[in-house]
Amino acid sequence: LPLRIAPVLSSAAQLVERTLYVHLHPGLNLGSGSQPRPVFIPPVVDLSALITRLYSNAADVCGHLDVRVLLTNVRAQSAACSGTTIPNCPFPTPQSLSHSPEVVLTDFPLQDPGQSHQVTQCLQRYTGHCYVCSPSLQSVLLHPQLMRLQEKEEGLKESEEKAEPLETYSDVVVGGTFDRLHGAHKTLLNISCLLANRRFLIGVCDQAMLKKKVLKELVEPYSLRTQRLQEFVEDIKPSLQVEIVPLDDPYGVSVVDPLIQCIVVSEETRKGGMAVNKKRIENGLPALILHEIQLLKDAHHTETEEEKISSSSLRSRLLGTLLTPPEDASHIAPLPYVIGLTGGSGSGKTSIARQLEALGAVRIDCDKLGHEVYQPGTAAYHRVLEEFGSDLLNADKTINRRALGRKVFGNQERLKALTDIVWPEIALLVKNRISQAREEGKQVCVLDAAVLLEAGWTDMVHEVWVTVIPEEEAVLRITERDGVTTEDALRRLQSQWSNSKQVGHANVVLSTLWEPEVTRKQVLKAWNLLQKRIQHRQEGHALVTTSAQV
Ligand SMILES: CC(=O)SCCNC(=O)CCNC(=O)[C@H](O)C(C)(C)COP(=O)(O)OP(=O)(O)OC[C@H]1O[C@@H](n2cnc3c(N)ncnc32)[C@H](O)[C@@H]1OP(=O)(O)O
């Protein structure tokens, strides 16, 4: 079986778009003429290895599919299950899955082609017996390309070994962030479900535990992560009592619940498991069995990513891609296509804007336009002096912006008084630059604007792109670049929206946290995808114009 997994998954991936449920039935015979019935499979060590292999192969060959290994029929017939009598059949009534199967696939090898109809009918009936399926359920025979020689060798080796039973427990616990549920999470969850007979507790990292995460702004909301977990576990083992609890520290419920017997860890979280046991003993509770699972390798990881399958790699792959589709911008001219590039102070906006400029965009530097409105003699110049006092003047009668900054950053009211004066003036200059770009036949403008969202300028742009870096890094960069104190840098950052709030309004997110080469690749990816979107829009527009003419 292990060698058949990858070929079966790749041929299944050609037919399946979203969810691929895996139902295990070793030795299922669909060609005997009699209707096969589902049976219980005992929990053995090999099964947990098979599950690991399945998710690992799925990540390699069909990463776009949501694979779920179903365990309803896995149970030792003799296992006591909270006092209830175990039925003879694992499916006394068909199980309802969160996505009703529309097609059932098998790699059952036909003895002769004439058998095909009988086998597909038999499989359809078998599936309907186990799961609630779509009324139009179809059954399809797969013809995976198997590696026959190796398979024979493996078969020989395996037949010599005896199936080793797997120790199971009434109550099992795991903890994690479970962001963008991937193969490694699913392996952890599946094996935990295999080990648990009665209750499965899942501690899910909440706010306080996310502070140190890479690209924490892109971590899915707690409610979405728990909803996905609940759905997954209910699908794979509906008989379990699932309890999902927030984790505000590394221990959570695992150090206070007396009934838990086992904690499932990986090589990386083994130390955490040991720390849990230390606390449990301090709390007068018995230590937990540490069941360690293997970390899945990510065959597609890049040089800068971790070797294991990880949510941070998945988050970093989102950088530069379209996270949410742009809102309708029919109130502004379709060209030039305007990108509003924003992000906290020191987040590297300007360097990204320059790279976009090198790729062909017209860069509009709003900080610089902002400085232009302070020119002596302008309306804004007089109003600012009226509002903030003439002690702001340099010897040459220009406004001392640094001194003005000290008056407004960290004081929302004063900052608002300033921006009420200057934003409308800057907006006029911006609109002029966009019109000029249009006249010159330019395709894309990048509006490099520090506080685009705070100013409500989203109606001037087609898309919002946000750059993020952790606050500590931003403070370091600002103090170094602008020669201001840490306190001034923090005050400036606190005058702006938080990274998370900005990301909430972003169509595309970028980060300059890593080496310049990584940023360059991200920007290029974002630019290439943008070109496709613009082309797509133009084609759509042409189509509408054509049909209107017809
Ligand atoms: C809608 C827009 O984004 S327009 C562009 C931003 N400009 C404004 O909002 C106008 C009000 N601000 C100003 O006039 C100036 O920033 C001043 C006078 C307060 C300070 O001037 P300077 O000392 O020359 O600083 P400078 O203009 O270079 O801005 C320094 C940082 O302050 C931040 N900043 C600028 N304006 C604001 C603001 N209104 N709120 C919060 N932070 C701001 C910027 O993020 C910038 O850092 P970054 O380049 O790393 O992004």
Automatic annotation (TrEMBL):
EC annotation?
2.7.1.24, 2.7.7.3
Pathways per UniProt: Cofactor biosynthesis; coenzyme A biosynthesis; CoA from (R)-pantothenate: step 5/5; Cofactor biosynthesis; coenzyme A biosynthesis; CoA from (R)-pantothenate: step 4/5
Name a single GO biological process. Answer: coenzyme A biosynthetic process
Q: At the top level of its lineage, which domain of life is listed?
A: Eukaryota
* GO molecular function terms noted in the UniProt entry: ATP binding; dephospho-CoA kinase activity; pantetheine-phosphate adenylyltransferase activity
Listed under GO cellular component are: mitochondrial matrix
Residue span, Cytidyltransferase-like domain: 173-316
Among the Pfam families in the record, one is CTP_transf_like
Q: Which UniProt keywords apply?
A: ATP-binding, Coenzyme A biosynthesis, Cytoplasm, Kinase, Mitochondrion, Multifunctional enzyme, Nucleotide-binding, Nucleotidyltransferase, Phosphoprotein, Signal, Transferase
Q: Where in the cell is it found?
A: Cytoplasm; Mitochondrion matrix
Describe the function of this protein. Bifunctional enzyme that catalyzes the fourth and fifth sequential steps of CoA biosynthetic pathway. The fourth reaction is catalyzed by the phosphopantetheine adenylyltransferase, coded by the coaD domain; the fifth reaction is catalyzed by the dephospho-CoA kinase, coded by the coaE domain. May act as a point of CoA biosynthesis regulation.
**Oligomeric form and interacting partners:** Monomer.
Descriptive protein name: Bifunctional coenzyme A synthase
Q: Which organism is it from?
A: Sander lucioperca
> What gene is it encoded by?
coasy
